[in-house]
Amino acid sequence: MGDLFAQPDGATPLTPEEQRELIPAHIAYRRELNEAEQENIVRAQDWALRRRRRDVLSEKFIKELHKRMLGDVWRWAGDFRRTERNLGIPHHEIPVALRQLLEDTKAWIQLNSYPPDEIAVRFHHRLALIHPFPNGNGRHARLIADLLVMQLGQKRFSWGRANLQQAGDVRRRYIDALHAADNHDLGPLLEFARL
After folding, report:
1. Which of 2, 106, 114, 155 is CA-nearest to residue 98?
2. What is the pTM of this model?
3. Partners of 139 in the β-ladder
């Protein structure tokens, strides 16, 4: 199958079972997979941006957005992962960790604990750290953080102004910013979100 399941640096590898969940039978190369996923993501983004009322901070919306982002490409889209990964928390802890993140974020908003950008970036970082889905977690966390920051009255993030699936240096800066946030330094991720 060519380079179909070759993963970019920092990406989550799929299990063989998850690889078999690819829907389009004609895809044989990574480039084709990226194109199919990107087309699906653009449609999901349009759907999410058109919705006037959306409860971004709900498990239902989080799953629905992921399904819309990747559901034409992967059968597992919108379902929490059932296996361990090189990233993320143990899979059986995902529902509880996600509920805690949602409640924490609602409290940050209600109490004005942080400025809107920081609330959305903190949410993004924790969601990416949980790594709830087999793949697409970074793209999903960035889009949902965009929706959250817009809901909080700010402009959408730029996230380095590049397609992070293909831009090597920009992707490396994003991953480095995530690692800094893992070590309680949110500054690089806040900066990267607004580059």
Report:
1. 106
2. 0.93
3. none
d(CA 70, CA 65): 9
Three-class secondary structure of residue 22 per DSSP: strand
- Segment 158-169, tens digit of pLDDT: 997 766 666 678
Task: Assign 3-state DSSP to the chain and report helix, strand, coil percentages, each to 5.
Answer: 55, 0, 40
Cα separations (Å) of 189 from 86, 125, 148, 161, 162? Answer: 21, 8, 16, 14, 15
Domain-located, residue 10: no
The backbone torsions φ and ψ at residue 55, rounded to the nearest 5 degrees and listed phi first, read: -95, 80
Could you read off the pLDDT of 124-158 as tens digits, one per residue? 999 999 999 999 999 999 999 999 999 999 999 99
Hey, what amino acid is at 108? W
The answer to whether residue 181 sits within a structural domain is: yes
Domain that holds residue 53: 16-193
Counted domains in the chain: 1
Domain with residue 95: its CATH number is 1.10.3290.10
List C-alpha distances in Å: 68 to 25, 34, 92, 98, 126: 19, 15, 23, 19, 21
Is residue 73 a contact partner of residue 33, using CB atoms and an 8 Å limit? Answer: yes
**What contacts 24+ positions apart, CB below 8 Å, involve 152-160?**
152/109, 152/116, 152/119, 152/120, 153/116, 154/116, 154/117, 154/120, 157/117, 157/120, 157/193, 157/194, 158/193, 158/194, 158/195, 159/192, 159/193, 159/195, 160/192, 160/195
